[in-house]
């Protein structure tokens, strides 16, 4: 998408600052507090001076996502670097130019729509190209989501919540069977700390005939709050009751662009930021230096069948 779609809207930033009762001086003080805290954590990476401004801007994004909660921001920063250590497949950026042209990338559509809703939320959308699950990899869902969110973190956050829209017309039981549900819960728990977005609602479009089976399988592994924010739409009219049509693309009865164009624009954005991804790939946690030993998830035991977007 055009670059300006991921550069913070000034009105959106002002709205968040007013909502949280923030001033620029307070933000600067809080960023400094988090940066100083990072220096006391031996397991966190030491970034070079050349990245000082980038690091401060990045921390400010977490402060916005957590409503300027310092402890949650510290947790998000720590969880981000920890995930890079525990789940290297998700953070693999060595060949993004070939990756975005691959059949694997093409099979999954995952994008953020350009516009905010009137209440300042973003729309995250995903679907599968067809019902053939041979090209489906659960890890792709989280990898693509993190690429998008990291670009927003780099540019600056002007939203704190999202609607998730999933078109399930091509989802089969074969897709569902690839998830390791017992490890899914642990992954979601860590991911929600690393990217503390507030989920407003998850919208399942055109649910398949086996949806009740899928719901019963997933229910024990998803919090009651998340489950309560799940809606099923057999037609677009009920979706429009939640999301205005001027935010949606024409494929879903909206007035905001074409889905194929949005896909290509996100591909361009990922490529445009590939050098930045590479420059940050080595900054991750060293779990052997953690001050207090915490229960961690072994990479060797975690199957990447565990990945899914809640």
Automatic annotation (TrEMBL):
SMART domains: SEC14 (SM00516). GO terms for cellular component: membrane. Residues 100-260 form the CRAL-TRIO domain. CDD domains: SEC14. Gene3D superfamilies: Alpha-tocopherol transfer, CRAL-TRIO lipid binding domain. PANTHER family: ALPHA-TOCOPHEROL TRANSFER PROTEIN-RELATED, GH10083P-RELATED. This is CRAL-TRIO domain-containing protein. It comes from Aphis gossypii. The lineage of its organism: Eukaryota, Metazoa, Ecdysozoa, Arthropoda, Hexapoda.
């Amino acid at each position: 998408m055009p670059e300006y779609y991921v550069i913070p809207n000034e009105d959106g930033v002002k709205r968040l600052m007013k909502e949280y009762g923030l001033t620029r001086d307070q933000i600067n003080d809080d960023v400094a507090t988090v940066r100083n805290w990072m220096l006391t954590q031996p397991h966190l990476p030491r970034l070079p001076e050349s990245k000082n401004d980038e690091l401060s801007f990045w921390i400010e994004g977490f402060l916005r996502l957590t409503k300027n909660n310092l402890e949650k921001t510290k947790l998000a920063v720590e969880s981000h670097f920890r995930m890079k250590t525990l789940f290297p497949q998700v953070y693999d950026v060595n060949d993004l130019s070939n990756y975005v042209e691959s059949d694997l990338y093409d099979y999954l559509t995952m994008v953020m729509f350009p516009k905010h809703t009137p209440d300042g939320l973003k729309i995250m959308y995903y679907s599968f190209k067809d019902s053939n699950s041979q090209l489906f990899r659960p890890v792709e869902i989280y990898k693509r989501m993190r690429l998008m969110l990291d670009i927003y973190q780099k540019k600056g956050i002007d939203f704190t919540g999202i609607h998730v829209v999933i078109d399930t017309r091509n989802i089969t039981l074969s897709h569902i069977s690839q998830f390791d549900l017992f490890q899914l819960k642990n992954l979601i728990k860590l991911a929600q700390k690393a990217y503390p977005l507030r989920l407003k609602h998850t919208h399942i479009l055109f649910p398949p005939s086996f949806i009740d089976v899928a719901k019963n399988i997933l229910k024990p592994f998803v919090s009651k709050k998340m489950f309560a924010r799940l809606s099923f739409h057999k037609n677009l009219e009920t979706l429009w009751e939640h999301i205005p049509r001027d935010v949606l693309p024409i494929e879903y009865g909206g007035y905001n662009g074409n889905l194929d164009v949005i896909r290509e624009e996100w591909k361009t954005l990922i490529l445009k930021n590939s050098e930045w991804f590479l420059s940050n790939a080595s900054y991750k946690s060293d779990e052997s230096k953690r001050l207090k030993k915490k229960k961690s998830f072994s990479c060797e035991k975690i199957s990447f069948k565990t990945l899914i977007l809640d």
